[in-house]
Design a protein that fits this description.
Elements (H helix, E strand, L loop, with lengths): L5 H14 L11 H6 L6 E6 L2 E10 L9 E8 L8 H15 L4 E6 L4 H9 L3 E12 L2 E11 L8
Parallel strand pairs: 3-4
Antiparallel strand pairs: 1-2, 2-3, 4-6, 5-6
Length: 159
């Protein structure tokens, strides 16, 4: 993913936002704002022809060096393309990309109502580690978030 992809990526992102079950964001940010919050080595798009139908990205969890091997996952698939394996392909590729870049733990925070995203992550080696109750408000309503993580079996292993 690069700046030239943002117009199409933002459309997919906006579809996710409109569900009310994908993010606390209520509007698609600018490319500059989004770019500054995501790791440059962890960005993917899925295309059907010239059309971007999904994207996945990694963001840092902390600026402290001890957390350099930990990243948070974002993944979005266009509404018309859900259930076709695009999310599975994106998340699998993102896991591989994260390990190539020395990231040993991935985490995801998912609304409990987002059943398909929870299932997708669990099928890709994530495990539920907890529920953060009333983590934040979305449109005036308190929302819980399910915290999942995936620990690499190839990166960050001491011999």
């Amino acid at each position: 993913m690069n700046a030239g992809d943002w117009e199409q990526v933002s459309l997919v992102y906006g579809e996710g936002i409109s569900t009310g079950h994908a993010t606390f964001e209520t509007a698609v940010p600018t490319w500059t704002k989004w770019d500054s919050g995501h790791l440059p080595e962890g960005r993917l798009v899925a295309r059907v022809g010239d059309v971007i139908v999904g994207w996945a990205a990694l963001s840092p969890v902390s600026s402290r060096c001890v957390y350099a091997g930990l990243a948070e996952v974002s993944i979005y698939v266009a509404a018309a393309c859900r259930g076709q394996g695009i999310g599975r392909a994106l998340l699998g590729a993102l896991v591989a990309l994260s390990e190539q870049n020395g990231i040993w733990t991935l985490q995801a925070g998912i609304f409990p109502e987002n059943f398909s995203s929870l299932a997708l992550h669990k099928k890709n080696g994530f495990r539920e580690v907890g529920r953060r109750e009333r983590l934040g408000k979305l449109n005036g309503v308190w929302r819980d978030v399910i915290l999942l993580e995936r620990r690499s079996r190839v990166v960050g292993i001491d011999g």
